[in-house]
Design a protein that fits this description.
Largest sheet: 4 strands, antiparallel
Radius of gyration: 21 Å
Order of helices and strands: HHHHEEHEEHEEHHHH
Number of helices: 10
Strand content: 5-15%
Shape: globular
Helix content: 25-40%
Length: 291
């Protein structure tokens, strides 16, 4: 109504003399701006793409390539936004921030595991991993993303372990970003950026000859991993609310990747809900150092 009056040449009764809205209205308008923007035309990639990247990159001696291999797996399974695992120029002032070492928790069922355990022991014992969110694009905090270990070669939990173990072998800084890698050329550390991910994904699509299946490399980007993870969940029968929770979408934009009727997912929902499932709380107090 206030905007309508302004368009009619009258004053807006909702703003003060400086044109500012009351705090409650300003916060509401800000929340609208933070909602997920409409998705672009980038294509969701199948799991074969991050799997191929991981398999190829882990066979190299390049810390950068190995980091990219693990990060594409982590991004696909945890439905991450690119800014949550790659470097972003501080001048861009984006709300989404990259996960740090202190945001990652490893579990042996309901028991916390120290990331300083020997690598083989940590991989053998770790059954689950949690990413704790400090901030994300829509301004929500103190949320978690949780996955169980699959024990497969593309296990997202093991990819997280490799990332953490690489970083802690060079620094004890708990604020270090998960996209950081160390090499002889970068002894103090360097970070993977979105262009690294984009180039790797496009090359993988070409190498796998996915153009024949309609995957135009020009329509592939880092966003394709998040979209691909959502599509994989849908195609494997996960309910849309589960996909929305895992991807932390505050609106229904993720539905643009899903091209089937959703009513079938209500079958046996009540019956499934009646089955007792044991769970434990994965939220834990934050600490300044890694223990």
């Amino acid at each position: 109504l206030g905007a309508t009056l302004q368009l009619a040449g009258q004053s807006n009764p909702l703003v003060d003399t400086k044109g500012r809205y009351p705090k409650s209205i300003s916060q509401q308008l800000e929340s609208y701006r933070r909602e997920d923007a409409p998705t672009d035309t980038k294509l969701a990639v199948p799991i074969t793409v991050p799997q191929a990247i991981l398999q190829a990159n882990l066979q190299t001696n390049s810390p950068k390539a190995q980091a990219i291999g693990d990060l594409v797996i982590i991004a696909f399974y945890f439905l991450l936004r690119v800014g949550e695992y790659t470097y972003t120029n501080p001048k861009q002032k984006r709300r989404t921030t990259q996960f740090r070492l202190c945001d990652i928790t490893f579990w042996d069922k309901d028991t916390y595991l120290s990331p300083l355990l020997p690598t083989n022991e940590l991989i053998a014992r770790c059954t689950e991993a949690t990413l704790n969110i400090s901030n994300q694009k829509n301004g929500k905090r103190n949320q978690v993303i949780h996955h169980h270990a699959t024990r497969a070669f593309d296990c997202p939990v093991q990819a997280l372990i490799r990332r953490v173990k690489h970083i802690v072998s060079y620094t004890n800084d708990s604020q270090a970003m998960i996209g950081t890698y160390f090499s002889p050329a970068h002894p103090r550390g360097w970070q993977i950026n979105s262009n690294d991910i984009n180039r790797t994904l496009k090359l993988a699509v070409i190498t796998l000859n996915l153009q024949e299946k309609g995957f135009d490399p020009k329509r592939i980007s880092s966003h394709s991993l998040r979209a691909g993870g959502a599509m994989a969940m849908h195609l494997n029968g996960k309910p849309t609310h589960t996909i929305q929770l895992m991807g932390r979408w505050s609106s229904d934009t993720f539905l643009t990747y899903i091209h089937q009727q959703l009513s079938a997912f209500s079958t046996n929902v009540a019956l499934n809900m009646s089955n007792p499932v044991s769970f434990h709380n994965v939220l834990r107090p934050r600490v300044g150092t890694i223990a």
